[in-house]
Fold this protein.
Amino acid sequence: GVAPNGCPISADAAAFRPFDGPYQLDPAEALRRAREREPVFYAPDIGYWVVTRYEDVKAVFRDNNLFSPAIALEKMTPPTAEAQAILRKYNYNLQRTMVNEDEPQHMERRRLLLDDFLPERLARHEPMVRRLCRDYMDRFIDRGHADLVNDIFYEIPLTVALHFLGVPDEGAERLRQFAVAHTLNTWGRPPPEEQIEIAENVGRFWQTANEILDDMIANPDGEGWMYETVRQHFKHPDIVPESYMRSMMMAILAAAHETTSNATANAFWTLLTHRDAWEEICENPALIPSAVEECLRVAGSIIAWRRIATDDAELGGVKIPKGGKLLIVQASANRDAAHWENPDQVDIYRDNAVEHLTFGYGAHQCMGKNIGRMEMRVFLEEFTRRLPHMRLVPGQTFENLRNISFRGPARLLVEWDPAQNPERHDP
Ligand code: HEM
């Protein structure tokens, strides 16, 4: 075959299947040979240019005019006519939010809505995270085993996210179902028979998000980022239009917690399978912030993001025609030997771990990155203090939702001897 730039498609590129096999298991490993030999390649299976090296991924993030984020939330898999009809029934109409907005609208909007993310505002949420973490741990600390994803790491980031946004508690199970449907609808490849249920859930998600927003619009004095959004909409409807509010309400209800839940589970998985690192942070909790950063590098919860070329471009020596779609794989960039020393080693002393691209880079870099980091740090502080002897249950497999961007285990089973709990000896 021949790529849209006229160059031949290599055998590796033709065989690249991001919804199956090696990429689903370990995206950085799956792209190792590409990083070395063919760092930018056209993948006919998805119709995207895959970008694998650190410098190229960063360059794409950096130039959000030439490489527009407009397709960041586009469906990877075209919906069937039946699924489309279901979405229409719910008046589903996800448009530009923040993450897929172009300049100059994007930066004007981001500036207006930035204040709630400032460090001093975020510091207010930390006691709540710690209290929740302690309460949830109390429920299972004497039990000797837990599924960390389903017993704690899913619900706490969700609770924190709702609090941050100003959204009343909507029921964790329902929102979880919605978030899963949104992920599969946007970043998955669901077969036609699964698309129906996914579309129903995405439609209900849209409806629920709009009901929450309508309540806020009717009563806009509440606390939280989405209330602030509503107030800015009244003041600057040109910069914060209604369609933005409606789209963002739904998108952020998934983005603000799934990313953090997954990143936390990935970090615990990583540290518990690198026992020396786990023991070092138990001995010396001051190392936790750098351990968080190293985990975000080697096991980030967003492994790839998307851009579209607004003009003919060149990347890593490869010509990309105008309109070319790019899959920029942060997980691969984060393990590029051209940027990192011993890239495959988990090293909590690494002094440049913070240069990872898991939060993106440049104008669109994640606004919530410090919320995510804070939650991960608090979880590690509490667990290393109260359950330093906890171990991963051997033999479990990392089971991910089948999609190209979001990564985190469906469950994370751990066990310990409650008789050894430090607080029994030194309460
Ligand atoms: C954007 C990752 C947590 C809100 C992004 C982007 C990534 C990302 C990759 C796109 C960056 C780009 O295009 O350059 C993550 C990860 C998280 C996390 C890995 C957790 C570990 C959060 C949280 C919130 C949040 C907790 C909010 C409470 C946002 C917003 C944007 C964004 C509003 C859009 C920024 C813009 O386009 O200007 N995030 N995120 N994120 N994230 Fe996060």
